[in-house]
Amino acid sequence: MGRVAAVRFMGLYVPVIAAFLLVFLRPNRKKIFPAALLGFVWTLPSLLAVQLLNLHFGWWRFNALGGLFRGMPVDLYLGWAVLWGILPILSFDETGIAWVSAAFFGIDLILMPTCSPVVALGHRWLIGEFVALGLVLVPAQLFARWTINDTHVKARAVLHVLAAGGVFLFLIPEVVFAVRPGHKWDALLFEPAWLRSVELQAIALLGVAGVSAVQEFAQRGNGTPIPYDPPKQLVVSGLYRYISNPMQLSCALVMTAWGCVLRNPWVAVAGIMSFLYSLGLAAWDEGEDMRVRFGKPWEEYRNNVKAWRPRLTPWHAPDRPLARLYVAETCGPCSEVRRWFESHGAVLLHVVAAEDHPTRDLQRITYDPMDGTDVDEGVGAFARGLEHINLGWAFAGACLRLPGIKHLVQILLDGSGLGPRSIPRRSRKLPLAALGPSCAVGTASDDQSVHVADRKWRAVTNLPH
Q: Across-strand partners of 72?
């Protein structure tokens, strides 16, 4: 075996064998290994992105023939992904990230020069090394550690979205381009700017449902989409009021549309295959898991909310309390918001005077789901209220609640004079029934079972009536 073949062989099999040994030697494999796999999933698209940067800046060069992926030997690519994505979490899951980064930086200082002549280092290769540490190693380890420790759920949700986008919109097309050589990204890069803008906006809109679903899992369910880190409670809010598979539907539509944008039928086929997988094996496995974890509430939800056919009106579990939207009576613009919701037929929602909040003075319009999870304020509260009208308004609310968009709109409103203002509570607390019939909007008053459930919930949780 020549040196080139030896370097490529060891570059792949040494990390893989080490990973297998660590998996079997480590206790609590059931929890650590899935988290390590998340780190591996992160490294695959991010390492490929580093290689594309390397092709531009020339930090290093690969001298190899055959089995190349964007100029990088596939064996070294996969070995590097295992080395940085899996091995650190299996070996040093309790060591500080800074120490782990320093350790693997030191390993690379030794390995990279010894991989000659397969790897030829440029005089600025350390810049590329630090870029790789920041884009690949550190996020991969944070992703895995937060999953093991069940912390930073919202940050984990962001990493899930970024990892999924990297795999579906970048890695899979690159693999297709490598297997079926063609125009690659030319269809997107060299088309008219107006057409590219329209296509990318359409892709973004198709992806809103999936991103919003992940956001809902984190905020309402305190979990993520992966089976080993699922929501702690049944999520039936947001777009889940209208369709039970917004994530899978969004993924299939985005991949299929992405293939059309790239003028590549094989990428579009990947979207169709993901739809078929979701329709078959994934649906069966998920259904069994949800029945075990949530029982009758899940069965009732699935009987009313379909997987691939969205409802036009929102669904609400009869054993859950109605959400409350607190809107100030003494604020002119806020009163307009109240009348707007009433005129648009919001359902399954109590609109309550902010002055009658049971525990604190409010500064913005506030949405309380009444299930013990986080409340939303300002633009977020308004967007939450939209999910109580119909599917179209719920989708608009999902767009409005996306991170970045929500904060930008809030800044614009605050800058235009609609910022926070203190709304003191009334000195005498009134029961909800005394607030008048206008406090319940839409058909909520027609659903007697929901009102009964709401009263029972408030009695159990000692919330004021």
A: 69
The band of 219, judged by pLDDT with boundaries at 50, 70 and 90, is very high
As a whole number of angstroms, the distance between CA 57 and CA 264 comes to 29
Residue 443 in this model has a pLDDT that exceeds 80: no
Q: How far is CA 19 from CA 16, 78, 132, 206, 229, in A?
A: 5, 12, 21, 38, 22
163: left (phi over 0), alpha (psi -120 to 50) or beta: alpha
Instruction: Give the mean pLDDT of the chain.
Output: 86
Determine contact, residues 142/129, Cβ cutoff 8 Å. Answer: no
Q: What pLDDT score does 29 carry?
A: 67
Q: What pTM does this model have? A: 0.86
User: Given a cut of 90, is residue 292 above it in pLDDT?
Assistant: no
Locate the DSSP E strands across 284-404.
Answer: 323-327, 349-353, 366-368, 376-377
| CA dist., res. 9 & res. 32, Å (int) | 27
Residue 446 has pLDDT above 80, yes or no: no
DSSP line for 252-291: HHHHHHHHHHTT-HHHHHHHHHHHHHIIIIIHHHHHHHHH
Q: What phi, psi does 420 have (nearest 5°)?
A: -65, 145
Say whether the peptide bond before residue 117 is cis (omega within 30 degrees of 0): yes
Single-letter amino acid code for the residue at 95: T
Residues pairing with 376 in the sheet: 367
